[in-house]
Amino acid sequence: MFKKLHFQIEHLVSFLKRNYLFLILGLAAGSIFFFSRDKILSFTQVNLFYPPSIGLEGRYRQDNLPEEITQLITFGLIQNNQNNKPGPSPLVKSIDIENDNRDYIFHLDPDRSWHNGRKFTSSDIDFRVPGLNIETIDKYILKISSEKTFAPLLSLLKKPLFKKNLIGLGQYQVKKIQYQYNYISDLTLQNPNQKTDLLIYRFYPNQTDLITAFKLGEVDQIQTSYLPKEFSTQENIKITQTVQVNNQYSAIFLNTNKFNNKQFRQGLAYATPKTTDKNERCLGPISPNSWAYNNSVKQYNLSPQRAQELMEDSGERIDSINLTVNDRKLLATAEQIKQSWSKNLGINVIITIENQIDKQNFDAILAFGTIPHDPDQYYFWHSTQSNTNLTNFQDERIDKLLEEGRQLFDHQERKNIYQDLQRYLLEESPAIFLSYPTLYTISRIK
Question: Span 354-364, mean pLDDT?
Fold first, then answer.
């Protein structure tokens, strides 16, 4: 028995001498895998998982990405709630308002860090807004002061906070970014807490390229304002329709220097065809989701008879109107307006497409208007705002409401101001409000 055991030991020693190098390498590899198994498995899962890619239309750089993307990567100091009221973002623990609503003290969350691991502090805030002064009280306290009372101030602080190369503070961080002709072509976001949670965005300069990319399989989902007919009959495609009521609207902006008769402008409004879908129908420049929205305004539903009556009462006789379009997406709408004004009012409409518009020398512009986060409309309708008041509209009553709306801080008082503003503005009709854009999300079903 002893001889047998001795033989086995000699055989084992001989085996170890011949294969010791392989054994050492195997032991080392096993140890490395044991201590790094989580990272290795995570890497394998990420590379075997192919997340869906999302196609969007537009040319973007780092400073003008769509809000739907920036809000995934980072925050501003302020964010809006469901009723579009401004409040502190996740970066802010509390806000103290002092000195008759001129000083705002922001207490920042000390547990927040940038995606590169650096702590988020008050010295990282570098807003440059005319009329505002920013002062760092300490590492996590920031004071923002206004030279005069300005009710919409908080809405200005929604601007997303970034460091270089889109380093942010939100749930997702930028994993990869690619460029083409100085514009972002591909953007990959990753949730650092869940490596397989990836979002891939690809950008295309126009709708035609975007739709073609979907057909070719370059992307699995697209968002477009145009729905190709062939998509509605395909079984492996899901289509979701959303009315975009928070960002913009379409309207005909009338040059009130040329059309200074209110009845004439109202006549044009009653002769303009509009959507019958209540969700798409736009009644004014403030979002229906806003706390200040007023739906009890003149709606100017299509009424040829009323349009003709107002035209006769106005005493105006205009044979031709030049309708300028600055976005090709609105060309079909422009054709409908042309036919209706011609048929019901006998006005010849000449449609032109212009990217650059002479604000002093135009008749009517069919364009998209911007809906700000705050109901403040000062820049768009106040008589002093020559650069942004597209219609050249001047009205003392409207001016007074716009000025008061910026100075009042009582919520109900401000609401009353902007409800009156919408009612009086629609009565004067410097613009004919049409609809909110519809967005189609087209997804491939796998």
Answer: 89
The per-residue pLDDT for 80 is 86
| Distance in angstroms (rounded) separating the CA atoms of residues 67 and 88 | 18
Average pLDDT over the chain reads 90
Delimit the domains of the chain by residue range: 75-166, 248-437
Spatial contact of 53 and 218, defined as CB atoms under 8 Å apart: yes
Tokens 């006005």 sit on residue: 347
| Contact by Cβ (8 Å): 52, 59 | no
The dihedral built from the CA positions of residue 227, 324, 248 and 412, taken in this order, carries a sign that is negative
Q: How big, in percent rounded to 5, are the helix, strand and coil portions of the chain?
A: 35, 25, 40
Give 46's pLDDT tier (boundaries 50, 70, 90): very low
Give pTM, 2 decimals. 0.84
Quote the pLDDT of residue 126.
86
Domain 248-437 indexed as CATH 3.10.105.10: yes
C-alpha distances out from residue 334 to 39, 174, 205, 349, Å:
58, 41, 23, 9
Query: Is pLDDT of 223 > 50?
Result: yes
Looking at the domain 75-166, which fold is it?
Answer: Dipeptide-binding Protein; domain 1 (3.90.76)
Residue 37 scores a pLDDT above 70: no
Instruction: Please check whether the two domains, 75-166 and 248-437, share a CATH topology.
Output: no
Task: Report d(CA 31, CA 25) in Å as an integer.
Answer: 10
